[in-house]
Amino acid sequence: MRCYCCSSKSFDECCEPSIKGDKHPSSAEQLMRSRFSAYATAHYQYILETYTKEKQQGLSVEDLAQSAQGATWFALKVHPSLAASSVDSLVGNSVSSTEDSSINSTVHADAKVEAQTNAEPISKTNLKSISKPITKPITKPNNAIVEFTAYYFENKSMYQLHETSNFSVEDGKWRYHDGVLHDDCGKIKYGRNLPCVCGSGKKFKQCCALKQR
Ligand SMILES: [Zn+2]
Ligand SMILES: [Zn+2]
Fold first, then answer.
1. Which of 10, 12, 48, 111 lies 20 to 30 Å from 25, alpha-carbon distance?
2. What is d(CA 97, CA 15) in angstroms, rounded to the nearest whole number?
3. 19 with 212: CB under 8 angstroms?
């Protein structure tokens, strides 16, 4: 079975090992995908555990289950455009696992720090901080941004949730912190003959529309 997160992999090779606790997601995007799949399969304990510690404090499994009640999450689209064009190096790293892009993006991040520092009045302290990033060892960033649209049915209507989310690494594991919702969130009408939002290549009416309830 194709994974709930609409990747090209099967559930047991994609999100299931993360949800079961057998494997930690290797990137912010993979964590986001696994959280979507956890919503689709009602694994609210996993949703709770993958929030940052700060956010976990105000939440409970019951709250999460209740807020998700009635919604059938059926498709996810990760927006690659943001990753490709964004100045934020962290996004670039989150969509790629290659070492090269990690190094490039880290260098990029340092350049950004320099640019910001340069904007301040020049003083001895500032000069010191300018030189700092150059000597800093290259490490993987601890924050990432992922933009996605998640689709769900509720009361026989179709909805989309379009969010840009912030992720952080805590204790070596990716965690979801918070997100900004885009203006196009809410109820949508989607043509039954259009290609399905899940990317299966089938018409919507012959694919995810069949899950509508
Ligand atoms: Zn998946
Ligand atoms: Zn579909």
1. 111
2. 17
3. no
Lowest mean pLDDT among 40-54, 115-129, 161-175: 115-129
What are residue 166's phi and psi, to 5 degrees? -105, 130
CB 73, CB 195: distance < 8 Å: no
Contacts of 205 (CB under 8 A, 6+ apart): 192, 193
| Length reported for the chain | 213
Location of structure tokens 């995007």: 29
How far is ligand 2, taken at its centre, from the CA of residue 174, in Å? 28
Cα of 171 to ligand 1 centre, how many Å?
23
Structure token digits, residue 65 = 């289950």
CA of 95 to the centre of ligand 1 (A): 14
Burial code (b: 16+ CB inside 10 Å, e: under 16) for 174-208 equals bbbeebeeeeeeeeeeeeeeeebbbeeeeebeebb
> Which tens digits make up the pLDDT trace of 171-205?
999 999 999 999 999 999 999 999 999 999 999 99
Ligand 1 centroid to Cα of residue 6, in Å, is 6
| CA 183 and chain centroid, separation | 18
